[in-house]
Structures are given as structure tokens and as C-alpha cells.
Amino acid sequence: MTGAGKTSWFEFAEAILEEAARMRRGIPWFETTTDGQPLVTRRVIAITAEEYPTPARRPVFSVLSNSRLKQDFGLELPAWRMQLHTVFAKD
User: Exposed e or buried b for every residue in 63-84, given b needs 16+ CB within 10 A?
Assistant: First the structure.
């Protein structure tokens, strides 16, 4: 089960940094995660699968589908970006 929409690992990393940059300071879960240190990453550089070799062969394009979940159970999660925003909005 995954959020609606599609993204790449690159876009996901960028979205995480955008959310983190907008956060107010002092949120306990974030302070614990970063050990109280500020984020210093300013940008993310996209790379190809060939530039990140792994033992497993990877498909050129793969997206998790929730179509059967929606069809069989009527369940559909909100868009992944909305869910990411919700996580970062929690105290």
C-alpha cells in the first residue's frame, strides 16, 4: 500500500528537504532524528541507475500500484506529498 501518485527517489528526497526547511524549530521527533543538528543539505543531484550499481537488476520504470486495493476494498490513500506534509506537521 502506497500513497497516490508517483515519484522518483530524487523527487522524494527533494520533497523531504523542502518540508524540513519549512518546519518550525524544536519539534521533538525531528530534533531526536537529527540529534539537534541543523540540516545542511542544500540540493539533491539526480543520478541514473547505472551510476548507483546494486547486485539486483532494476526495471527502468516501476511504480507501485494500488488499483487492486481500490477495486477490491474501496481503499485509496491520499497523495504521497500530502502524507509527507502531514508527517512533518506533527509535533
Answer: eeeeeeeeeeeeeeeeebbeeb
Total structural domains within the chain: 1
In a domain? residue 1: no
Identify the residue whose cell numbers are 494500488: 66
Domain range holding 83? 9-52+64-89
CA separation for the pair 88, 31 (Å, rounded): 12
pLDDT digits over 28-53, tens only? 888 888 898 888 887 899 998 888 88
Count of beta carbons in the 10 Å neighbourhood of residue 87? 10
